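re: that chain from earlier
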Amino acid sequence: MKQSTAIVICALVALTAAAHDFRSPKEISKLGPNYVLDYVSLLQDTLPVIHSSSDCFTYYMPLLTELAAETETQSEACNSTAATDINTSMTNVQTENQELSTNTSSVVTSLGKCSQITDAISQLECYSSLNQDAVRQLQQIANNASISLRAYNQNITEINNELLTCNTQVSSASQVQTEMYYSDLIYCMNNNAVPTTTTVATTTVNPTDATGATDVSGSVAPATVVPTTVNN
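^ sequence. v structure.
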């Protein structure tokens, strides 16, 4: 898979060099920061003669590298939170199962006492007295098991939904930042203008917690102050 992706990237870079054109920032940002980083890395190796752009690559490559690493870290945090929540839910189920097993054993023990009675009539009387109570207890055990199972399935569904939301937010924030960096890199190469450094607020997505709340906070990352003009 990685080999085929590398072949595609190399082919795109070759076409870029031949046509003196670049892929649309909006198009390429959808492929993810790691893909863009590989693409820009090959551009850096392929186009030094076509563009006097070494300073542009020097400026933007660290930004793209940091963004790719940050995106991966945030995605792993989403997955780790989901895995922890699933393990917690499973632990709760195991605790409930132990209680159900204890109650079931109690019913079985009561029935077992009847089987130990040697007098036939007395044994029948024992079973008869236990009949309604045993049925009630077993029915309650079955009801409790059904409730626990429904709660577990619902909890897993919520966890998976939170995981999807978390990863979607990470991906969306990364796509916006990738598009900005890549657009500014192309502007830099086309205009031979290395940007000055300033700071802008970028979105950092924290993984959802067990309640489903998602925290989105601002962080500061270097960016450019030059306008972006790219032909799509």
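Confidence is low (pLDDT under 50) at residues 1-20, 198-204, 208-232.
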